[in-house]
Amino acid sequence: MCGIIGYLGYRDAYPILINGLKKLEYRGYDSSGIAVFYDNVYNLYKTKGRVHELEKKIFSCKKQVKGTTGIGHTRWATHGIPDDINAHPHVSNSNGIIMIHNGIIENYYAIKIILLKNGFTFKSKTDTEVLVNFIEYIKKENKFSLEKAVRISLNEVVGAYSIAVIEKSHPETIIIAKLGSPLSLGINNEEFFVASDPISFIDYTKNVLYLKDGEMAILKKGEKLDLRKIKDNHKLNPVIEKLKINLKEIEKGKYKHFMLKEIYEQPKTILDTLRGRLLIPEKIICIDGIESNKEIFLNAKSITIIACGTSWHASLIGEYLLEELTRIPVEVEYASEFRYRNPIIEKKDVIIVISQSGETADTLAALKLAKNKGAFVFGICNVVGSSIARNVDAGAYTHAGPEIGVASTKAFTAQITVLVLLALIIGKHRSTIDDFRYKFLCKELGSIPEKVDHALKMDDAIKKISQVYYNVDNLLYLGRGINFPVALEGALKLKEISYIHAEGYPAAEMKHGPIALIDENVPVVIIATRKGCYEKIIGNIQEIKARRGKVIAIINEGDIQVHLLADHVIEIPNISEILSPLITVVPLQLLAYQIAYIRGKNIDQPRNLAKSVTVE
Asked: For a 10 Å CB count at each end of the chain, is N or C smaller?
């Protein structure tokens, strides 16, 4: 959630830190700060608000920020309100140790009591200030080096963290460590870059090391990387990888917001996710993670899909897909609930975990729980080298590219694309889908990028609808069958970026409560495709209209019946019902975006939200 940036080398650290923080803004935050070291002194600046507020504060000091070592941070509040005092970096009581931290120290209060008894005082309400003072306490009491004090302290900590620590008297050294929260290290000639996400240092190097849980690194100016185990100080051999991110992928280009750019990228990202897996002329699907574990899926008695947020909505669509095409019973679980309810997991049970970032804390914990109980875990994620990608038994990347907007769009359709591929290939192996239907759906799947591109052309019509409804207080979203999760996702998108209350329901459940809300002030968005209980949906629309409700309908091209009933229609191309979520979600993404844009909201960085939820 928080963003960490650090630099050790020969360049001026300040511009690297500020530019890195700007690239990390997408993660969500409420305050920011930096510390830059020069000789045996440092300049520390931090403030509530955006990175540009930090820049203004530094500029107002009219002081040159010199130094070739530094750390920076964007904070998403957990312990303590967002303000200047709780912002990072945090400093020990002696002002000798400076630290930034992402994560939550669960036993911070017990440690704080010990420190208070030993004369320590605290300015902030954060667990981070407790940790930096705990390191100082261990160091002074035992006359340890900073490196050893960090390692001993972290062995006493319960929780999750990624940290970067510097000692004022030794600014040529940065110590970093990781457990549960992502941390990467960029390596160039005679310089190191530390970051929560390597996109923040892509301007300088593509050589990256992803720290694993329980690892720490000692970075010294002019020396080689020293990588060790936190637990026993065992020295490790670093594995350096090459970043494959293109700079253009993390720039807005002609678009006003990253979210709009990412909505419009979906024809390409779906095609990229299909590329090499769906051979359209031959109507063949090949996924290595399935082929090499074919017997496990052939013999599966059930499948459990685990995810959070938008990925959970994709999982619900996966339930429809897998049960329809493979005839395997499927359950969908919130990761945060699954990990705490003592689930029944047998050896060789099939678990699918889905996460855009591959770092979602609850999903990662659920994955580890499932593996400890002997389950086979298949992962679907977007980020190569992420914690989930490294810990699953097999998996498939979505190839959506970096997603900067906090509200997920292209990652959602890429996840559905992978789930369609999984359902088709497993169904083919299990002979639960006949050859004609299999080939027909393969052909239809190959046409999806073009049809999504066609749906995007409805943006002008959606802008006009948004002008009518941008100021409402509530919206209902209705869908049936496989499009019910799309209604949930459409409502979530609107809530996330416009702050309008919205709820998604199965259309058939409208009469079981939500209909009480319907009047001329509560518009209803209904997915009314011609297949999948079409006549029932017509009935739902008539019930809404009988109560003076306003209807915005997502319809197939050429649908006259709904066109005559609804107040507004958004037409999408015809497609098989089982593949329709890949298209029906697109106008809902655009509707949320356009309403939020008219309302003047911070679309890419909505309040209180983080892109990657790396703490509980």
From this structure: C
